[in-house]
Amino acid sequence: MLPPVLRHRRRSRAVPTALLAGLLVVTMGPLWAQDSASHAHESAPAMPTMAEHDGDTPMRGLLGPYAMSREASGTSWQPQATPMGGSAPWMMGDWMWMAHGSANLVVTDNAGPRGDRDTVVQTMGMLMGMRPLGPGTLGVRAMVSLDPWGVGKTGYPLLFQTGETADGRTPLVDRQHPHDLFMELAASYAQPLGESSSVFVYLGLPGEPALGPPTFMHRFSGMDNPEAPLGHHWLDATHITFGVATLGWVWKDLKVEGSAFNAREPDQIRTNIELRALDSWSGRVSYNPSERWALQVSRGVLRSPEQLEPDVDVRRTTASVIYHRQFERAQWQTTLAWGRNQKLPGHATESFLLESALVIDAVHTLFGRVERVDKDELFGEDEPLAGQVFTVDKATLGAVHDFPSTRLGRFGLGLQYSRYAIPAALKPVYGDQPDAWLAFARWRL
Ligand SMILES: [Cu+2]
């Protein structure tokens, strides 16, 4: 439980202090890091990406002729300079395997009449394998989460969050839904086309279609923050899609791909495999002009994504830019993302996200996230404000301290604070100055 004294020190001004502090991380972080790096060597050697067992050449990606560090969730790309987490790879015959794991013990305290306190355990485990097959590369990936038990059906408190349901009858509001037991069970095959090109197919049940930036929990700039972005359902909520087939083409630093998928969001039963027709479509163009950058634009037509609004389709458009810098003693990544949902029938809503994480000496992490999201699902049909669109701003600032690595992984302690700016019409419902504290202990492999 967080000290109550922290809860009472709320300023009456709505100017989000955390927003300013967040921008400070974004702007000052790299200067500081650059400074500390320049004291040591003029030209710091690039951080090694994970090398193969027997050599120094970086591991090849699953989907194309580039370093594996470019690959993020699903078939998405991040900057190639991003460090790879997880276990050291091991070989079994022709197969090379890697494992990732993480767990967060989270205590969260959201203030105001619609706020709540809770303690949850978020978990994620991933196993990835690859082997040569014929002229190409076969990849398999399994990702599971114990969130259905550790977080529970009703998810965790997160003011202004919307999306999915806990009971199949009422939408989850001011709470973030848990992830499903099966987050990804996918296979891919990539066939080279000459030196610098490839075509690939990716099949997942569940999997992630070619839509949006890399998912928040898998991108370096977002993975330290245990909270889902308020724009999750505008940007990356399709990361657990029960049925997806993607066909893609890679040429050097360009990727063009299209997916057929089942856009229905996971239902309240978090342990099943849900089968529906692959009647939704998306297309994405990704471009990584250098090791430091990852750009994408994507568009999807989602048929009946919401269980509780089955007659509504959504046309989703997203664009994002990710920038990653390696310094001798630090890693710094920033993501800027925009998403738009056009409901058919219905209105269009948008979300904007800017987030950044700075990791120094692999021990100290400072992160921030600023969001502006149009929320149209905060009220049930019988409430007076039902159906109206409210623009909500949120700013989060957090820090993590990690302890030295052990054979069992790494442990760390983190704390973050979020502050919201809301329209006057929401103040009678949410209080004048909603904010939230969150503390966590984490483990990572
Ligand atoms: Cu999610």
From TrEMBL:
The protein's name in its UniProt record: Uncharacterized protein
Organism, as annotated: Tahibacter aquaticus
